[in-house]
């Protein structure tokens, strides 16, 4: 056989191989490549979506943290104000109680002074009666002279 016939037959076999490959082999390969490209594109889109959702979630978290910090600071300030108010009320109650105690002590001291004056008057009256008895050398009857002794007590 000649070289031309061999080349011609090889060209026909090659053409049949190309036709067979284009008809039966190439479409499934192209479909598989297209499917893989679609999956990769979907994966990249999902990754972008997840990245944007993560960014949004981070922003929400930061906003919620800032709000929680603000609420915490407000609650802490309110607690401090309440503590200060309780301290002031306790001081006011203590001052009122101290004033009551001082007033009660003053009233008791005044009562003690009045009792002491009364006791002193009684003793002075008794001494005055004894002194008068000594001067007069006779006994003075307290029951008979009660009015006189009462006046003498009130004058002292």
Walkthrough of the structure:
With 156 residues, this protein is mostly helical. 92% of the residues lie in helices and 0% in strands. The chain has two helices and no strands. The longest helix has 134 residues, at 3-136. The N and C termini lie far apart (172 Å).
Itemize the secondary structure elements and their pairings.
Layout: H1 3-136, H2 146-155
Helix pairs in contact: 1-2
Q: What's the average pLDDT?
A: 88
Structural class: mainly alpha
Give the quaternary arrangement of the chains.
Answer: single chain
Tally of contiguous helical segments: 2
Summary of the model, kept short:
With 156 residues, this protein is mostly helical. It has helices spanning 3-136, 146-155.
Which properties best describe this structure?
156 residues; mainly alpha; rod-shaped
